[in-house]
Amino acid sequence: QVQLVESGGGVVQPGGSLRLSCAASGFTFSRSGMRWYRQAPGKEREFVAVISTGGSTNYADSVKGRFTISRDNAKNTVYLQMNSLNPEDTAVYYCNALVGGWGQGTQVTVSS
Questions:
Q1: What do you get for the CA distance between the two ends of the chain, in Å?
Q2: Beta bridge mates, 13
Q3: DSSP single-letter state for residue 74
Q4: Dihedrals φ, ψ of 111, to 5°?
Q5: What is residue 90's three-state secondary structure?
Q6: Alpha-carbon distance 82 to 15, whole Å?
C-alpha cells in the first residue's frame, strides 16, 4: 500500500529556511504527481504545491516565490524547500500522492 513519510520539520525564526522531505513507497513513484498541503491550527487543510511526473510545478499564491517543490525519482522522494518563512507558514505539512495516500505530517513552526 501507499506509504508516505515526511521529515524535516522543526522550529525556525522568521526569515529562515527549512527543507521538507517525503519518502514514498508502495507505488510507482515516477508515475505519480505529488503534492504538499498544510494545515494550521483551527484552519482547513490547504494546497501548497504540486509537481507532475514530468517535473511541472504549481504553487499556492501565498508561497509562490518562496517555496520550491522538487522530486528525485531515483530516491522516491519529493522535497519542499521553504525560504523566507513567516509565522503564517506555521502548520503541519502533509505529503500527498495523486495516486492516493497521505503522510502523517511534519510540524513546521515559525517563531522568534
A1: 40
A2: none
A3: T
A4: -155, 145
A5: coil
A6: 10
